[in-house]
Amino acid sequence: MSENKPNRKNALGRGLGALLEDSPAKHKPNEILPEIAKTGIFEIPLSEIQVNPYQPRVHFDKNTLQELADSILVQGIIQPITVRKLAPNEFQLISGERRFQASKLAGLTQIPAYVRTANDQQMLEMALIENIQRENLNALEIANSYQRLLVECNLKQEELGDRVGKNRTTVNNYLRLLKLPPTIQAAIRDQQISMGHARALINIEDVEKQLAIFKKAVDEELSVRNVEALVKALNSRKEEKEKPSKGLDPVRKYEMNKIQQRLATHFGTKVALKADGKNKGEIKIPFNSATDLNRILEILEII
Description:
Among the domains are: 2-120, Alpha-Beta Complex (Conserved hypothetical protein from pyrococcus furiosus pfu- 392566-001, ParB domain), CATH 3.90.1530.10; 250-299, no CATH class. Helices cover 51% and strands 12% of the residues. It is an alpha/beta fold. Mean pLDDT is 78; it is low at 1-38. It comes from Algoriphagus boritolerans DSM 17298 = JCM 18970. Keywords: Chromosome partition, DNA-binding.
């Protein structure tokens, strides 16, 4: 392993060194001053960098992290990380934790970094927005990032949309994911279901039915369109049950019952009388035999 270390340094140089020959990268980390630390790129020892406490990504896939480390060994760091200076020889990540962790896996001892001046709130905002804009977060991580920007950075939804380059509807669709049960949120995080599946499930108010359709979607590997159809059918049945009756008002219903009783007495058999609010309906007079039919016909003076 030790024989490969010089090659690692050269690999990093090929990836970025040629671009930075005349850049501030020649400065040592302890020479970085606050007044020039807003735009400079510097080579900073990995041992002097703390991880970002505001990191929105909570899960790093080990396989893809190793793939990135292998790529860094060959290509170097193409995109510098971003840090803020806390004290001499002490920095804190703003964004680029995957590159930071992969660089350590690759055995590098230093990494190119933009050094910026930022307070805690600015750091949180930059970390969240930069990660969102890279579009490598899952839908739930994006939703949590949006929520943190709203709450911790005191942004309104319109302002948030402007910061991340999304319209208000898109932002709201992500935020609605946080209203889903923990089981479904975990499935989004673990990529068992997509954003499309989740958006369909949000439209079910009953949690038990929501979880039942979610389970069916996972077990049967249903498409988003299939889940949307199930949700639509479920909500249609609910609307039908909740639809107010178009029947008669109580007074009219009482009158129709009295008429039905009189008809039953007149024909000597049970009579069904139905009517709607527009006074349209039907009368049904059942009979049990040909003789019974003739009896009814005689009452009607038809024969």
